[in-house]
Structure formats: structure tokens, C-alpha cells
Specification:
heterodimer; A: mainly alpha; Helicase, Ruva Protein, domain 3; 6 helices; rod-shaped; B: alpha/beta; Glutaredoxin; 2 domains; 7-stranded mixed sheet; 5 helices; about 40% helix
């Protein structure tokens, strides 16, 4: 049985093939498995479309959102965490990407105080509508009835006198 | 059972004043915000405030990776907002590049592309596809577009040598003549 030896060229080709295979495997292993749509959407639902207002990224059909979702997929495959990805989107596209208002204190405090002030005004108005009749007298209710009756009779008598 | 009624207690004056001041303030805030939303873009005649633009690698301006708008005083600036997902932007991409090729040798005009809410990967594909060579960078945190109050993309702003906005093109250019018609008067 004759032994065949590889020529230098064949060695070179073999070495190149092995090097390419090794490089490809290294890149593939470094990137990890491709994230699924569910994994991408889990983060996408916490972000908002840059073009259509108030549309979460996971359900937005625009091209811009598709690109953003691909960006999330890419970052996940690079091993970035959810917090890192969301922070990247905020840094790159502004706070509105996260759905948070730019000024949290003003955005939450003003409506809260407005509701409290409105409620206070409404209660005050209701009190003003209810109280006038009761505020006229401080006598007990039974006596008050007599007082009202007396006043009625007095006024009636006065009217009758005038007509005479 | 006796039903008694108590005399009305008046709300202290200072509380009433605070409530009214607050309500008037709230209305003022709503009015200002409504007015701002209806204002439209920055208007011609306004001096453009300073802002910074960071360029994509390979699309720098005179080798600088970042510039301040104030550094460009003395030159006519054509500021174009675009995005790779924007179909109308594609309509004017060739015209803008052609105009840049015409005006670049003069040294008096600067074209700046501001990429609006885009991913760099797709932006690069777009820039390569249309052979764009003028300076381009991302509108980080949408600060620049918020300042200009853009209503969408594409929008192009022509700023004169003194930093005063002279013309706003909303929507794509349909011909290079439209671009020349805005730049040439600013060079005289």
C-alpha cells in the first residue's frame, strides 16, 4: 500500500480551511444563539414606537419599529441585559422611547394636585349648596318648625293688614 | 332627636388664594403646551441656537467626529433630517448628494445629514445605497429634532452665514433646482 504525502499547497489549503472554520465557530459561539421573537418582544413591549405615538414597540408594524426590534435582537445576541438595552434606547432616542415622561415630578405631581384641588373645590361647592337653609337658625328642628310657622303667620297677617 | 345646624365656616383666605393661583397656573401650563404644539417648526428669521452633532464613522466633517453648530458660522448650512425607514427621504437622496457635489468645492456651503430615530446599521446601508458623502450623524436623544420641532422626515433647513434660518423645506425635494434656489441667494 503506497503512502501519499500532501504537497505544500494542499497543506496551505487545509490550514486555511481549518482557520476559517475555527474563526466562524468562535464568532458563532461568542454571539450565542439567536434570540427568539418572544425574547425580543419581552423587551420591545417596554419601549415605544418613535414614529406613532403611544404604540408599544412589540406590536408596531412600521419599518422603524421593525428595525428597532432587530436592534434588540442583535444586542441580546451580544449578551446585553434588558436594562442595558433599555438604557441604550433611552440614551440614543430619548426618554420618550421608554414611555416615561421627560419630567416625572411635574408629570405626576401636577395632575395629583389638580385632582385634589378640584375635589376640594367640588366639596366646598356642595357644602355651599346644602348649608344656607340650615345655617339660618341654631334652634332645634321641632322648635324651628314652629318658628317658621310663626314667621309665616306673621308675614301673612302683615300682608292682610296691608290690603286692608 | 334634635337636628342642629352649625354656622358656615369660611375657607381661610390664604387657602382660597393658593387654590386659585394653582388653577390659573395649571391653565397657563396647558395653554403654553397647546401653543407650542401648534407652533410648527422653527420659523425663518430665527437665529439657530447652538447644538452638537456627532458623526457616524466615515461621515465626519473635515475629519472632526463632532461639531458644534456655532463652529459653522460664516458658511451656509443645509441641515437635512432623514431616516433609513423613510421612503420619501429616498426620493431626494440623489438630489441632495448631487447638490453637495456641486457646492462642496466652493467651501462656503456645508451639508449636514441628521439621522432621526434610526439604527446605525440601517443608516449605513442607506448612506451607501445612495452614495452619500456629506457629513452625517445621529440625532442622539432626539435633541436636535426637538429643538427644530420637526413634524416628520424629510425636512431640510437652510441657514445663512450668520446662523439665521432662511428657509424650511417640509417633505422631499423634487428637483435639484429647488435646492439651488435656496442656496444661491445665501451665497451672494
Amino acid at each position: 500500500m503506497s503512502k501519499r504525502r500532501l504537497s505544500n499547497t494542499q497543506y496551505a489549503i487545509l490550514f486555511t480551511l481549518l482557520a476559517t472554520l475555527f474563526a466562524t465557530l468562535s464568532v458563532a459561539l461568542a454571539q450565542g444563539p439567536t434570540p427568539t421573537d418572544d425574547e425580543v418582544n419581552k423587551i420591545a413591549k417596554k419601549l415605544y414606537c418613535p414614529v406613532c405615538e403611544n404604540t408599544p414597540l412589540d406590536v408596531c408594524p412600521t419599518e422603524a419599529c421593525r428595525q428597532w426590534r432587530e436592534q434588540i435582537r442583535e444586542m441580546l445576541s451580544e449578551g446585553k441585559t434588558e436594562d442595558e438595552i433599555i438604557q441604550y434606547f433611552i440614551d440614543t432616542y430619548g426618554v420618550r422611547a421608554s414611555g416615561d415622561p421627560p419630567n416625572k415630578v411635574a408629570s405626576y405631581l401636577i395632575p395629583a394636585v389638580a385632582i385634589l384641588a378640584g375635589t376640594a373645590l367640588l366639596l366646598r361647592a356642595l357644602q355651599m349648596w346644602k348649608k344656607p337653609k340650615m345655617a339660618e337658625s341654631t334652634v332645634p328642628a321641632k322648635e324651628a318648625k314652629h318658628v317658621h310657622q310663626d314667621e309665616y303667620f306673621n308675614r301673612l297677617e302683615e300682608e292682610l293688614k296691608k290690603r286692608k | 332627636m334634635t337636628e342642629t345646624s352649625t354656622p358656615r365656616r369660611a375657607v381661610p383666605l390664604w387657602i382660597q388664594i393658593v387654590i386659585w393661583i394653582f388653577l390659573v397656573g395649571l391653565l397657563a401650563i396647558v395653554a403654553v403646551e397647546l401653543s407650542r404644539r401648534q407652533q410648527g417648526t422653527v420659523q425663518p428669521g430665527e437665529v439657530i441656537d447652538d447644538f452638537a452633532l456627532t458623526f457616524y464613522s466615515g461621515y465626519e466633517l473635515d475629519g472632526k467626529t463632532e461639531i458644534k453648530f456655532s463652529d459653522l458660522r460664516g458658511k451656509v448650512v443645509v441641515l437635512n433630517f432623514w431616516a433609513s425607514w423613510c421612503k420619501p427621504c429616498e426620493q431626494e437622496a440623489a438630489e441632495l448628494q448631487q447638490a453637495w457635489t456641486e457646492y462642496e468645492p466652493t467651501g462656503e456651503v456645508v451639508f449636514l445629514g441628521v439621522d432621526y430615530v434610526d439604527t446605525e446599521t440601517d443608516a449605513r446601508v442607506y448612506l451607501k445605497k445612495f452614495g452619500i458623502t456629506y457629513a452625517n450623524g445621529a440625532d442622539l436623544a432626539t435633541k436636535i429634532s426637538q429643538y427644530f420641532r420637526i413634524k416628520g422626515v424629510p425636512e431640510t433647513y437652510f441657514v445663512d452665514k450668520d446662523g439665521v434660518l432662511r428657509f424650511v423645506q417640509v417633505g422631499p425635494f423634487v428637483s435639484i433646482h429647488q435646492i439651488r434656489a435656496q442656496i444661491d441667494p445665501l451665497l451672494k
